[in-house]
Design goal:
34% helix, single chain, alpha/beta, binds zinc ion, Archaeosine Trna-guanine Transglycosylase, Chain: A, domain 4, 3 domains, TIM Barrel, 6-stranded mixed β-sheet, 28 strands, globular, Rossmann fold
């Protein structure tokens, strides 16, 4: 058996499971093939060893024992019900397994622990198998937690108990006058257990295809946030995943991912968002010389600086002649704060939120905490609040400050007040202010992206070009450039030397010179902060051999034996 991961979206993945030379795409539902159970269509099957066909997943004999007579039940047949003929099916070998899943789905802390265990160490690269739980409305969440293979038992059980499955939860089959589905079974007009089973299979297959598409586009999380509404237990599972498996999720979240809607309470705890806030606290230092803090509201258009409202703010700042001193920081939900120079860094230009003009308590608290951290750590000479709806929530933690907006940041009077305040309260910046500021802004991006290595890389360097098309160079040799679409700095080989010196963002390889892209087989180690999409130095014993973009996170780089590890930009 061989398992190949083709696409990743956090812990979720599209892959290929190859058994006896037969290739099955994953995520997949393996159909139980057993005498006494309804006939199955082609595709991945689950069979006991003595009855297994080519390409089937073989299950342990003791793991599954139907045919003992169906218990006479008036309610749901649950697998953990004492009289149930269905036990969990467990594949023989090669799989990581979420054991006891039926119980785990009712015990969220244990569920999260089981996912963490399955996804740490070598189990990460095995296909993750989960019996009994793959109802259509659960597939998105389970795939999000890294499950690759489900079985058809829950679909069979649902048919036996008259549950008509949909992607938003089960319905009572007998209560449906018209069937809300156009699958072949429902269109036929036939009713009965077999028609119901065929519908349940079709629904699960369709949902799984949607899940797979969402993995492909990097947008599974939004589907998960909508599907978990079907069952409070699922909401609980997702919330606890976000709280208790935060580190695991963050490890697998790409550094530059897809744009998303942050439309639910759960969106606030997405790994990209938590990472943003953590990085600000751990890595952020304001650009040198930007000593006047100007807090402004966000805009629907991203990056913010392209919006009408932000162009007006910037006109006012420009007219004051104090631009190089002003540090614009956007107050926004759910990120909290976005310093202007980081507005292209993911996900600052890639999120959308519903805007009602009212900030709920969680959003207010977030803004207060972040602003309080900002003014407490960054030591500004002057703080100006030019905010809208969020103004009052933030005012309490600002201490001594000037309010120039009066709650209407876009009005002519407010903009004039902003310009006037800057003129009156700030000194004239020194002559080389503007060019120096571009460098300081770029250095701030480097710090945010690479931590201490980014700061060190910029020591004694200069910036060239007009924001955002800026390059950083030292002694005439280019180190990297800001790329607007990634919102990050892309390094040259010279830039990679700074990483090699600190050992951060380094992929250690055996003693060879990469020709083309680097594959996992040659990788010996990887520093822990590497995420998919990061710029990394490919090194051998401290010597830079290449620079490029990581295609795997640190955990996977250390474990994987195949697959592209680094997409190489320049080789030494
Ligand atoms: Zn149907």
């Amino acid at each position: 058996m061989r398992f190949e991961i083709l696409e990743r979206d956090g812990l979720a993945r599209n892959g290929v499971l190859e058994i006896d030379g037969v290739r099955h795409p994953t995520p997949a539902i393996a159909r139980i093939a057993w005498e006494g159970l309804p006939p199955t269509t082609p595709g991945l099957r689950l069979s006991p060893r003595d009855a297994a066909g080519k390409g089937d997943i073989k299950i342990l004999q003791s793991g599954f024992a139907p045919g003992a007579g169906r218990p006479d039940l008036d309610g749901a047949i649950d697998p953990w019900y004492r009289g149930s003929p269905y036990a969990e099916a467990r594949p023989e070998e090669g799989f990581a397994v979420l054991d006891n899943i039926a119980k785990l789905l009712l015990d969220s802390p244990r569920f999260v622990e089981a996912v963490k265990e399955a996804k740490s160490g070598p189990g990460l690269l095995k296909p993750l198998y989960c019996s009994l739980a793959g109802m259509p409305h659960r597939l998105a969440l389970l795939a999000y937690c890294g499950v690759d293979v489900f079985d058809s038992l829950p679909l069979i059980m649902a048919s036996e108990t008259g549950r008509y499955l949909t992607s938003t939860g089960p319905l009572e089959y007998s209560a449906l006058k018209d069937l809300p589905c156009t699958c072949e079974a429902c269109r036929s007009g036939a009713r009965g257990e077999e028609a119901l089973l065929r519908h349940n299979f079709a629904t699960a297959e369709a949902e799984l295809r949607l899940v797979s598409h969402k993995i492909s586009t990097g947008s599974l999380r939004e589907l998960v946030e909508s599907r978990v509404r079907a069952d409070p237990w699922l909401v609980q599972d997702l919330r606890l995943m976000d709280m208790d498996a935060r580190g695991l999720q963050e490890m697998h979240a790409p550094i530059k991912g897809a744009a998303f809607h942050a439309g639910s309470k759960e969106s606030l705890l997405r790994p990209e968002i938590v990472r943003w806030q953590t990085r600000l606290r751990e890595r952020y230092r304001r650009p040198e010389g930007a000593s006047v803090l100007l807090l402004i509201p966000c805009s629907a258009k991203k990056p913010y600086s392209l919006s009408q409202s932000h162009m007006r703010f910037r006109d006012a700042i420009f007219s004051s002649g104090r631009g190089p001193l002003v540090h614009e920081v956007i107050v926004t939900s759910p990120l909290g704060l976005v310093p202007r120079e980081l507005e292209m860094f993911y996900p600052a230009k890639d999120y959308d939120i519903p805007v009602t003009g009212h900030w709920d308590r969680d959003e207010q608290k977030l803004a207060q905490d972040m602003v309080s951290w900002l003014v407490g750590t960054q030591k500004y000479d002057l703080v100006i609040s030019h905010l809208g709806d969020e103004r009052e929530a933030v005012a309490d933690v600002l201490g001594d400050h000037v309010d120039t907006s009066g709650g209407e940041p876009g009005s002519r009077a407010s903009l004039d007040r902003l310009e006037q305040t800057l003129k009156e309260r700030c000194p004239q910046p020194r002559e080389q202010g503007r060019a120096g500021r571009v460098f300081q802004d770029l250095r701030s991006v480097c710090r945010f992206q690479f931590g201490r290595s980014g700061d060190e890389m910029c020591e004694g360097a200069q910036a060239y070009g007009r924001w955002p098309f800026v390059k950083v160079a030292r002694d005439g040799s280019q180190l990297g450039m800001l790329t607007a679409d990634r919102g990050m700095v892309s390094l040259t080989l010279n830039g990679a030397h700074a990483l090699a010196r600190t050992g951060d963002y380094c992929v250690e390889i055996e003693d060879f010179r990469p020709k083309g892209n680097l594959f996992a087989v040659g990788v010996e180690g990887a520093s822990p902060e590497i995420r998919i999409g990061d710029d990394v130095a490919v090194v051998h014993k401290g010597e830079v051999r290449a620079v490029g973009v990581a295609r795997m996170c640190a955990d996977e780089l250390r474990l994987a034996e195949r697959g592209e590890a680094v997409h190489v930009r320049h080789a030494a």
